[in-house]
Amino acid sequence: MPDRKSRKDAARNREAVLAAADALFARRESPADITMADVASAAGVGKGTLFRAFGDRAGLLRALYEARLEPVRQAVEAGPAPLGPTTPPQDRVPALLDAVLCFKLDNRRLALALEESGSGSPYRAEHYERWHGLLQAVLEQIPGLTDSHFTAHALLAATRADLVEHLAGEERIPREQMRAQFANFVTRVLASGPLQGLTAEE
């Protein structure tokens, strides 16, 4: 019985921490200003609880990012078109990339904080590897399109949090305009086919 109670307490503390962190990132202009002490205070838990549950600030950021991403992941894995697995690949690739872009726009401060957290290469992050693997697999289903591995990297580069922040924050490009520009870019890439004189091996 005590073990069950401690697990319940740990789960409750985790939810409180994620909710507090979520609220802090929504309010603060600079995500770098938010410390583990800030989150612990807002959640009403000790810093030790925070470190035991998430390891460090980067671990907390990853957990919050994954929690926010969960509805998108469910739609991708088992949902209907245009994100779900039954969607034709030529239609699914633009939809997947639009979902990534919209998620970054909706979570600008959190996504930027995660990229800037110093937790290693962003290309080794679990969420990036998952998106890249999925996108590559769908690209491979499109006839005539070669080098899906590089193409997936190149397309995802246009959704990097620092670029999204620059376009939306500094250049003040409206959301729908950005989505339309990105969709047009993706369409051109998918329609271009292999480059003349080059093969995937080269």
Automatic annotation (TrEMBL):
<keyword id="KW-0238">DNA-binding</keyword>
<protein>
    <submittedName>
        <fullName>TetR/AcrR family transcriptional regulator</fullName>
    </submittedName>
</protein>
<feature type="domain" description="HTH tetR-type">
    <location>
        <begin position="11"/>
        <end position="72"/>
    </location>
</feature>
<feature type="DNA-binding region" description="H-T-H motif">
    <location>
        <begin position="35"/>
        <end position="54"/>
    </location>
</feature>
<dbReference type="InterPro" id="IPR036271">
    <property type="entry name" value="Tet_transcr_reg_TetR-rel_C_sf"/>
</dbReference>
<dbReference type="InterPro" id="IPR009057">
    <property type="entry name" value="Homeodomain-like_sf"/>
</dbReference>
<dbReference type="Pfam" id="PF00440">
    <property type="entry name" value="TetR_N"/>
</dbReference>
<dbReference type="InterPro" id="IPR001647">
    <property type="entry name" value="HTH_TetR"/>
</dbReference>
<dbReference type="InterPro" id="IPR050109">
    <property type="entry name" value="HTH-type_TetR-like_transc_reg"/>
</dbReference>
